[in-house]
Amino acid sequence: MSSSEIQKTRIINELSGFIKKLLQDPSVLETSLDIARRHLASNSNDADVLAAIANEISDTTSIHIPDSPENHSEADRLFLELLKEVIHEEQALY
Description:
It is globular, with a radius of gyration of 14 Å. It has four helices and no strands. The protein has 94 residues and is mainly alpha-helical.
């Protein structure tokens, strides 16, 4: 198995664990979206905003995202980017 395949497998496993947590506690998703909405309303630096979102999600839900963006996994980054994309799409509707 190549390193690329190993990394993809790791990401899939991490995302599977995340989805399992969402299925066990669906309020995590709404909480995460609320946190993202609040932080993305500020016009701060994108990296700082995503780090603040990650920290608050970790503090208030069963989802753990490392404090430092340098320690975010690909799955962490994907989740944060998807939250940002969903919020921007919501805002574009209004």
